[in-house]
Amino acid sequence: RGGVEVRTGVRISAIRHQATGLSLETTAGTLTARHVLLASGGARPGMELAVRLGHSIAPLAPSLFTFRVPHGLPHDLAGISVDAGIVALPAARLKEQGPVLITHQGLSGPAVIRLSAWAARWLAQRKHVAEITVNWTGRPLSDVRAVLAEHRTRHAARLVQGDVAIPMPARLWAFICGASGIPLDRRWAHVSRNEQETLTANLTAHTFHVRGMSPFNEEFVTCGGIPLKEVDLLTMESRRTPGLHFAGEMLDVDGLTGGFNFQWAWTSAWHAAQAITSAG
Known about the structure:
This protein is an alpha+beta fold and 280 residues long. The chain has helices at residues 44-52, 110-118, 120-125, 141-154, 170-179, 193-205, 260-279, and strands at 12-18, 21-26, 29-33, 36-38, 58-63, 67-68, 81-89, 94-102, 106-108, 129-135, 206-211, 221-225, 231-232, 237-238, 244-246. It contains 7 helices and 15 strands.
């Protein structure tokens, strides 16, 4: 209805700039156009077309993904979450706070996914192998230490693993107690100083080894792409090839979760379309 012709099953092998516009070499023959909009996402074939026209590419890396933790988290904890955890990458000096979800493969949730965005290139350089810490409580170590000390005094006769002293799912509490060397039959009165200190440490900085992303390649967005300095952001037109425009993940823009990447795709495409139709 809008006079748009859609061609499917056509692959573009090259785009060339000519005096009369742009020439596209495709599997359906040669096409010519005054304007071309590249919006092929973070896929390398689209990036390569831009490179041949003089553009550079900021290193590509997956972003917004979950962490695969093959060891240290029992499968029966899958589905358990905390609302205000803190996930940190100590070596990168990065951390994020928010909901943390245990999955069959490792760790997910907003805090993990946001952390993967800030550390996207750092993690990619290390093949997504890293050490993380999880603060299941979202509170400082000193606060948790004080809470446990008071709880131990008040409830000395209770079994530790069945007595959740810090608000969290009971199964997660029992798991952390076990990981801290506190057996099922241990009562608060008989917890040693070392055991209590280990429990405090695991509640506030439980260490896990990340060994890759989700095995199903579920990352939501690609970090990297064409640097913004190479594009006129009012028209999304290339500063190196007149008539060539970009939108979405083709450019080096990636946002956090919450719809920001969708909004960038739509907004950049709208600006490109306005510029193209105005130019005629």
